[in-house]
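Kindly review this protein for my students:
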Amino acid sequence: MQTTVARTVHFAGTGLHTGRPVRLDVCPAPIDHGIVFRRTDIQGEAALLPAQFDLVDQSPLCTKLVNDAGVSVSTIEHLMAALAGLGIRNARIDVNGPEVPILDGSAAPFVRKLVRAGIRQQGGKVHLLKILKPVEVRNGDAVARLDPSEGFHMDFEIDFDLPSIGRQHRELNLRNGAFVANLCDSRTFCRQSDVDAMRAKGLALGGTHENAVVFDGDAVVSPGGLRHEDEPVRHKMLDALGDLGLAGMPILGRYTGIRAGHATTNRLLRELFARPDAYEVVECEPSMLHSLPGAGVRESDLALCA
């Protein structure tokens, strides 16, 4: 059964890259609409950007959609993760500029408001992307891979030369409310030196210690410290879920990421869809719904995230 939001949900915040105010509305949409971004500051069909992997403009810092008219919207990954993690299949995302608000650097603000607004059952068939054969891409020491599996599982490893991060590894079965309980409140992270370098180049003008976890040597500079001891690897998993949401349907398979970022995960989807023998699209049986992200999420689950 497909789902959408029960009513329009409003968000306001700052763009990470421009530092400008952003207004974003997640609006109900009909069956088989999918997730579509609409730039409200642009007229006509040029304003529309379907959330599709083949519209992604490769970027190491965020996920950015660009349509044939050259219109773009960036930093979509946290919102996409929230929609995928809550099982929302259909929505129109109205945004008044070229980027999604960064909010606190995680998906939790999106998750809280969407759950409290309600998720409406629509009917209509849900189709799944079933992985039949292993598919893998590499970019230097970064690896992203999909393998056959029942349900949707994720295995992620990071390794930073910063003592406060180091090597972190986590595995998770993303069935039901696992995303809400384990990943959604984990924030984006960076080194203090990265912040200084980006600011010097006029980048990340909306970045603060309140919307990212900033590390400096052995120290966590951001107020309040970490939400989880392994918050960085959890956030990488959150990003990957959002980027995999651009497949257009839930995945039945196991995703493995080793030092993988946005560009590597997008390359993985492109490689997958270039190999028709590696997947099939199947109809979701009612008995399979409990294995998907978002099935059975309740407002009481919000107590589990920061």
